[in-house]
Write a structure and sequence with these properties.
It contains ten helices and five strands. It has helices spanning about 1-20, 30-35, 60-65, 95-100, 120-140, 150-170, 175-185, 195-205, 210-215, 220-230; strands spanning about 25-30, 45-50, 75-80, 90, 105. The relative contact order is 0.12.
């Protein structure tokens, strides 16, 4: 873990040197902040709040440079950035929630302080993610006869997604996979099978293998239908 934190520190210093006073604060977000980090399955998420009047024209170059600081960790780096009004940049509602509730300041010890995303904004992003990301991934993964190395991370994420979706849909918050699965145990949506979700969480915790999760042969389309049926009544 220390090597990862050292890399995040170098990433932060790199952005600070290039953005100067325009960089209000940098934050660790995602599982590095709210818990449940897995060196195999987690991304390395960094949030940046900027004060400049318009988005930096070379932000793509700066992000590429940050990724280039380490060949291994750079492949896992995700950078979320924008101004406090969120009129530009890449800092969607769910990541703003995460930054507000869990963000760990890395430069000036400034806690995040901006308008909390509304219920409609949160559910709109979740609905978009269902159609643009989760459902297409289900269509792809449900055709697999065996897991290739490239499929392992998306497969575990897809199995776990009902827990994360339902938790955020109901609570208007973002938290760890552990917290989301615990919430799912409490609400027990009709028709949703909890065993593969529990197994996927155990896989993230190195308690079982992804091959064991895959061998359970979860009905991904059935899980999708049950999850959508649940949130449609909320």
């Amino acid at each position: 873990m220390q090597a990862i934190l050292n890399y995040i520190r170098r990433v932060t210093e790199n952005f600070s040197s290039q953005l100067g006073s325009s960089l209000v604060e940098a934050y660790r977000i995602g599982s590095l902040a709210h818990g449940g980090f897995s060196e195999i399955y987690s991304d390395l998420d960094v949030g940046l709040i900027l004060s400049c009047p318009s988005p930096p024209t070379d932000m793509d170059r700066m992000i590429a440079a940050a990724k280039g600081l380490d060949d291994n960790y750079g492949r896992k780096l995700s950078v979320f950035w924008g101004n406090p009004e969120f009129s530009w940049g890449r800092l969607p509602a769910l990541d703003r929630l995460d930054l507000l509730d869990h963000g760990v300041p890395l430069l000036h010890k400034r806690r995040a302080d901006f308008r909390r995303p509304s219920k409609d904004e949160i559910r709109q992003q979740l609905s978009q993610t269902i159609e643009s990301s989760w459902k297409p991934k289900i269509d792809e993964l449900s055709q697999l006869k065996k897991l290739e190395p490239k499929d392992r991370k998306p497969y575990i994420r897809t199995i776990l997604y009902p827990a994360r979706l339902i938790f955020s849909w109901d609570s208007f918050a973002v938290d760890s996979n552990d917290r989301a699965v615990a919430y799912l145990r409490a609400v027990r949506p009709a028709g949703l099978e909890l065993v593969p979700i529990e197994m996927a969480l155990a896989c993230r915790q190195d308690k079982c293998s992804v091959e064991e999760v895959f061998a359970f042969n979860a009905d991904l389309n059935g899980q999708f239908d049950s999850t959508v049926s649940y949130i449609s009544t909320r």
